[in-house]
Design a protein that fits this description.
641 residues; mainly beta; Lipocalin; 11-stranded antiparallel β-sheet; 4-stranded antiparallel β-sheet; 34 strands; 6% helix; elongated
């Protein structure tokens, strides 16, 4: 046997030998734009201006994205746009989509704000930002300008389909190019805006406007060219490897393209030449089109994104190195001393086996089984009315019956005719009938613990002494329920003290279905305290709250509260003189307004990161006493790291 230490060393040595073989030794002389990028930031959507003077990119940190502008001559970095907040939720890396105007003076980007798409134009000379709505789309993944800057080609999502559209800026109209189940990404105008190149996982090179036509999707993305000038339904396929992804296409010259591909398991830059040869000559010359692809980089790090300016031979790259995303600039070198096919990594070999096994299973076809039905022992039914069936030499076009239809006329069935059985002998699964959703609740959380806290934060009645009631050691039971869509929440709680007198009850109902959040709260609390005359008094407080909340964003909200409070104060008969004291009641109405900002994230118990503040004011009026009003306002804030 082997020891654990020896087994660990052998395991580590085995995988080191595999990945060291997969990683070529390169001597790269590249200087990153940002020397030391943050590990928590995602750098993406690097775009070079057509004149090569500027670089723009997007950073995303926990959902908060920023658009940056880098001046290559001054080497200065400027933030031109910022949206969203850092939140503990799944970030959306698809937005914003950015592109340069062909004149290199306007940076255009599309963002999602408050449920709508915004098309923004940033003028580099005047520093002016112009925005307008982009309608009819759910999301825009990528876009590019035409050569004259009058149109946009979009990869947009509409009704759960990702297709190619052409948007005319002057008229704000859209022209749909593709409409099928395949995902069409990274579109660009090429050949002086006469054609459109894009990446897609379609298996057919023929366009169809019927989504049901696509029966199967490819596991990888290939490059296709659409002839926008002729509106041809037949696409030109540029790449052929069915198991490798081909993304971010850029036209260098006519019929020559560069793109990214993971053909060997690592994303590198490839070049494709699209050409044609004479296939045969009939009355006209027929051509056969083909493409030849070859790598122009061989890196041991994935090339996450790239952008190329063909006129300047500049290429911008985003690479992932040691958990950091670096941005590099380099000159495009079309011809490198590299093999036509890079050696496959172990990851690519395993991936090819997986796809091949899946294809082999799909290629297996089951032949139909024909079953002979049982023999008929009773005579066949005769057709009652044969005047419409028996031919008299003339054809009645109004009552024409096929021979096979004669067998089933008037409900009769000829069992002597052999019918092929269904391929699947199992009964078809009956679809579940759709029903209208009825609000149904489920338990969200249940808390049972012993602590020293109150169940609800509310003011204590002033009793004339300096001693305030402390709940002491008590038991807490709290139950919360939500409905399926989380439109309604119900919270109930009981705090039981060990003296069985100072109990506390809470019931809260929230309605979160619409923009205005509504909450109804009932709270009951009782406690015993001492007055300045050393009498014991028991106060029973009952409160009702109606709370309205209007959220401006996920971290900022405006809140208003209307409350009613009733205090019943009863002197305890601890001595004879206390019997002569009269019990008294207090009734209060209150108003409270709050502006709350909370962008903190919990890193641990009592450890927060972010900023929070609250500005609030409140007023109380005692309704059973004339002219007794209390006003109070306060501003609280805090910054934590």
């Amino acid at each position: 046997g082997s020891s654990i230490k020896q087994l660990t060393n052998e395991w580590l040595g085995y995988y080191n030998s595999i990945y060291q073989t997969d990683s070529p030794e390169l001597n790269e002389e590249e200087t990153p734009i940002i020397a030391k990028p943050k590990k928590t930031r995602v750098y993406q959507k690097m775009k070079l201006s057509p004149d090569g003077a500027y670089i723009t990119f997007v950073t995303n940190e926990m959902g908060q994205y920023k658009i940056w502008l880098y001046n290559k001559s001054t080497k200065k970095l400027k933030r031109i746009y910022k949206r969203e907040h850092k939140l503990d939720q799944i970030p959306d890396y698809t937005q914003p989509a950015i592109a340069w105007h062909p004149g290199s003076k306007i940076l255009t980007f599309i963002t999602e704000e408050k449920g709508f798409l915004k098309l923004s134009f940033y003028n580099l000379e005047t520093k002016e930002l112009v925005q307008r709505n982009l309608l009819y789309f759910d999301k825009v993944l990528d876009f590019a300008f035409s050569s004259d800057g009058s149109k946009l080609v979009l990869s947009a999502v509409k009704e759960s389909l990702t297709d190619i559209y052409v948007h005319t800026l002057a008229s704000a109209t859209n022209e749909q190019v593709t409409k099928d189940l395949a995902d069409d990404l990274y579109p660009k105008f090429i050949d002086n805006s006469a054609r459109i190149i894009f990446s897609s996982n379609r298996t057919s090179d023929t366009l169809s406007l019927e989504t049901e036509e696509v029966k199967e999707l490819s596991p990888a993305y290939a490059l296709f060219v659409y002839n926008y000038a002729t509106k041809s339904d037949v696409l030109s396929r540029i790449t052929e490897n069915r198991y490798a992804n081909h993304t971010y296409p850029v036209e260098i010259t006519k019929n020559r393209y560069v793109y990214l591909s993971d053909a060997n398991g690592i994303y590198n830059r490839y070049m494709a030449d699209y050409d044609s040869v004479i296939s045969y000559i009939d009355t006209t010359i027929h051509y056969r089109y083909f493409s030849k692809s070859y790598p122009i980089t061989n890196s041991n790090d994935n090339l996450m994104e790239h952008d190329v300016v063909p006129e300047m031979s500049d290429a911008g790259n985003i690479r992932l190195k040691k958990s950091r995303m670096y941005m590099f600039m380099e000159k495009l070198k079309p011809f490198q001393n590299l093999p036509l096919k890079l050696p496959d990594t172990e990851y690519r070999k395993e991936l090819n086996k997986k796809y091949s096994r899946k294809d082999s299973l799909l290629s297996i076809k089951t032949d139909p089984v024909f079953v002979r039905p049982p023999e008929i022992r009773k005579p066949l039914q005769t057709i009652n009315d044969t005047s419409k069936v028996v031919s008299t030499g003339e054809i009645d076009i109004n009552h024409y019956v096929f021979e096979i239809e004669k067998l089933n006329l008037n409900g009769s069935t000829n069992q002597a005719v052999f019918n092929p059985a269904k391929r699947d002998s199992l009964p078809e699964k009956q679809e579940q009938k759709q029903r209208i959703y009825q609000t149904a609740f489920y338990i969200n959380y249940l808390v049972s613990q012993a602590d020293f806290n109150f169940l609800n934060a509310s003011y204590q009645a002033f009793n004339g002494s300096q001693v305030y009631y402390n709940p002491g050691f008590n038991g807490l039971i709290k139950l919360g329920t939500n409905d399926l869509f989380e439109d309604y929440k119900i919270i109930g709680g009981v705090r039981l003290s060990f003296d069985f007198e100072s109990n506390e009850y809470l019931l809260s109902i929230e309605n979160l279905k619409k923009r205005w959040d509504k909450e109804y709260v009932y709270h009951r609390q009782s406690f015993t305290s001492a007055t300045s005359d050393n009498y014991l008094i028991k106060t029973t407080t009952q409160e009702v709250y109606y709370v309205l909340k209007y959220p401006f964003s996920q971290v900022l909200s405006l809140r208003g509260t209307v409350s009613f409070r009733h205090d019943r104060n009863a002197y305890l008969s601890t001595e004879t003189s206390a019997l002569d004291l009269e019990n008294f009641n207090n009734a209060w109405t209150g108003l409270k307004a709050e502006l709350v900002f909370d962008n903190t994230r919990s890193l641990g118990i009592n450890i927060y990161s972010g900023m929070r503040y609250k500005i609030f004011g409140e007023a109380y009026k005692q309704v059973n006493v004339v002219n007794r009003i209390f006003l109070y306002w306060e501003q609280t804030s805090g910054i934590t790291r």
